[in-house]
Input
Amino acid sequence: MTDKYDLWIAHLARRDELLFKLALVSMGAVLAWELLRFMPPAWAARLRPLYMLGCLMVLAGTVAVIFIGSGGTP
Amino acid sequence: MTAIAAKFSEWWKSHDDDLGDVWPFLLVANVLYLLLLGVAPLWYDEANSYWFAQMPFARMITATAGDTHPPLYYFLLSLVVRVFGPSPRFMLRFPSVMFGLLTIYIIRQIARELNLSRAATLIALGLVTLSPFQLHFAQEARMYTLLQALVLGATLAALRKQLMRFVLLSALSLWTHNYGLFYLVVNCGVLAWAVWKTQLRWPVFETVVITGLLSGAALVLWLPWAFVLLGQMRTVAGGYWIMPVTPGALVFLITNLLYAFTLPPWLAPGAIMIAVGLVAWLTIRVVEKRDEAALLLAWMVFAPVALAVAVSILWQPILLYRGLAPSLPALMLLLGWGAAQLPRAHRLYAAILIVPLFVASIVGQYLWTPNQKGLQDHQVLDQLLAQWREGDIIIYSNEGYLVEWHSRAAHLPQAVLPRTCPQNNLGGLSEQTFRAFGIADPEPETIPWRRAWFVSTIFPTITQCEVDMSRAFLARHPHWLAFAIEGNEFIEANIWIVER
Output
């Protein structure tokens, strides 16, 4: 094979590693959501909306940072 | 007129139960699927489909046998080509639109058989209608929406215990894509569940016998191709472009199934996290609730993936998101089931997370797919054709661009450099398909030409031997660069003018 094949394999490995890390973060967020049910019901009822809002803000913030970092073109 | 209107009204009333929920979704999907259908050029795989479809039947079978798919889709496409002549792109892609719409209708019927709530059904139908993956493959001249319709049709037949229909649709799915084998296993599970639920005298015995007989009958109908598949497997084992399975590759698969390929890069990380989070959340819900319908849908989503991963680990990497197209509607039904149980506010939250990503990807589909499918390459071909003169020939370093440009340049003198390398390009045509296509690969010096347009491509899956042959050809003749088609760290595609 050519050197481009090696570059491609290395690129895929980097991509897969990044995807896996993102997946871990995501699964961690879901797990944390599920763990809320083991809290006292009153606490859980208060924390759930905050958690949802927090996740949405973190997600929107991440998207905004990446968008600006990428030069701001869609 | 009145009689026709009355007949239509009667027909509509008789089908109202079937169509009542689903027709608004069919209408929206119809608009989405037909919009700009013929704009993007045929990319390599679609051009391959077209070439197969143009061939006489016997040669098409020979060429397909050397490839990695069964021939049913190419046969159906050949009917389109025979009816409409050298077909415009719109017509070549139109069958996929029809199968995509049929899939939506079948999803509605499956939801009904599984007794999913109205909310669950409507959410699932909405998600499928807006699915970027569905849109992409409904606008692609490939076999994936046909595979979906046949596999889901077999699922529906299994749920309804329509045994002959189950056998026929399963056999047809086997003749459409080799992943049909995985889905036969999946649908056997669905059939076993449906049979088990009836009041049987000897439940285990009768379930095993009925499922075994019906799957056996489907396999018998497919048997002639089973021997061809063995040959195809030998070709794939000799070297293929699909990469080994990694955890990241599984995440990539989920992402592609949900969003296809046209999300802006800055949205991708968030989209990936949402996709994985949804699947994780759904898995927890299914395990927690142990609802029969949800378990069955989870089986339809995850079992084919597990089978493809197992084969990839035990034999040769074959895991490819496209083949898992029939799992996407099941995933959407599962999402509908999960979302329908949420409080209204949580449902809205989920919609805020998913719908904008689907819409962004759909917009991307219309904006960027023509470029992804090689619009630039075709613009280069336009320039080449504008400068064409008597005594010219196109010589390719491999058959990639030859296949892609075949629908427009078949009438021109063309050849590929001789295929003398010990190992073929990992993503290229097999020797058998190459010969059945009738592609010429003579020594360039043995054929007449005064000036050659030499299309030289270097990309990850080609061999060093092929690169060396290209360089040797250029070294033997005066040459200069005419067009730089593409150049980055992975791909170099150039067209050289070569004088004799």
Chain A has a mean pLDDT of 92.
